[in-house]
Design a protein that fits this description.
This protein is an all-alpha fold and 285 residues long. It contains 14 helices and no strands. It starts with 10 loop residues before the first helix and ends with a helix. Helix 1 (11-24) runs parallel beside helix 3 (50-66) and helix 3 (50-66) crosses helix 6. It has helices at 11-24, 30-46, 50-66, 71-93, 107-125, 130-142, 148-163, 167-180, 186-192, 195-203, 210-222, 234-241, 243-256, 270-284. The chain is elongated and about 75 Å long. The longest helix is centred in the first third of the chain and has 23 residues, at 71-93. It is 70% helix and 0% strand. Residues 247-285 are annotated as: Disordered. This is MI domain-containing protein.
Amino acid sequence: MWNSWSSQHDSRLEQRRICGLLNKLNVTNFDSVATNLIEHLTNCRRRGGVETIEAFADSIALRAIEDAQRSSLYAYLCRRVDGELEMEDRRWTWLNDGTRQSSHPSFTSILVDACESRFTQALDERAACLFPLVEFIGDLLLDGVLPIADVQDLVDQLFTLAEQGQEGSAIALSRLCRRVAREQEGIYILEQLGASGSIERVLEEDIITPKARYLLMAVIDLFHQELVDVFDSTGLRNEIYNLDDDEQEVSSELDLAPTDGDSLPSKTTTYESEDQAEVSKLDAE
């Protein structure tokens, strides 16, 4: 049943319900729990309960930090929620002339704000939670939930701090890039973020630690995944694989092979011999 945008609702009660559903979320029951979550969030959207959606976005970011093994699952949930709420907005907020009302912020913008808030807090405190957070952001990029432009500022901050010698920021960059590069389109995303050139600039700095340098150099290798010949010469390759001997054997076999004018030796089977004997008896009779 459709509810009016102005209907009253208990935001605290809705937030507790949503929190309870998130506690139940796992791989096996994902579809059913996600459907219930989307239903609650859609109802909140219809009633103008933006604070509930904001609490949900912040809770998702926090859970991705504390339960990093489910980061990809939470990112996919955000993708589902974003798609459904976007459809809900189009269904109820389009005007007759085709323009769209902007009274309700999109779920993407709410999620970006939540991630930025957690990101700033982690940088200020230099907390280890920065690492799972950037991996979650990488998952959101891969799922198309967060636009590249909205993440650019966060990535630029990490590069600036890495150039200043902060090892934690370099580690965070390594985590983010490796997370995104898992998928085929990940390299394109990293190129749009300017990761390759920025990392090379960081590597030019003498103040970065050996650990940071090693991790960032490993990331550079992700952009140059080309086949490399491990053999120093063709002769060494032929020697190891005995390619020269194989070529000689093939040539010998070709020399011994019959030509078109040669006839292959005929073989007479036992049954053919018996048939010929029977024919001879009939001729004699």
